[in-house]
Amino acid sequence: MNHAMITAEALRYRLKLVQAPLVQDDEWNVEELAVASVTAADPQVDGAIRRIAESWTKAGLEPTELCVPWSGPAVDELFENRPDLVDALDDILRGANKARRAA
Question: Which of 38, 67, 75, 87 has the fewest Cβ atoms surrounding its Cβ within 10 A?
């Protein structure tokens, strides 16, 4: 699994959850944030990715789908039923912002 790709999709999904007027996703370079986040080797980000991936597969979702845009009723249901996974998305977003500020 490519952690940078999973992180990028996690960031895209989180941003989609808080779309305009709160967030303009054209202001974010998601791939750059993802790479910076993974490169920083933040244990919170690593743990968040692991929690999401484990829950994803336990929910019967295909692991390879972690690396493509997250969409569909099964994905939405996973995050609606598991608010702790939304917290994991926030951990990834915080880690990405921290890594971006440190760069």
Answer: 87
**In terms of Cα–Cα distance, which of 46, 69, 31, 97 is closest to 54?**
46
d(Cα 23, Cα 73) in Å, to the nearest integer?
23
Tokens in use for 65? 């789908």
DSSP state at residue 1: -
Cα angle, residue 71 at apex, residues 68 and 77 outer, rounded to 5°: 130
62-98 burial, b at 16+ Cβ within 10 Å, e below that, comes to eeebbeeebeeeebeebbeeeeebeebbebbbebbeb
How many CB atoms sit inside 10 A of residue 52's CB? Answer: 26
pLDDT tens per residue, range 13-36: 998 888 755 555 566 788 888 888
- Give the separation between CA 90 and CA 103, rounded to whole angstroms: 20
> Does the pTM of the predicted model rise above 0.90?
no
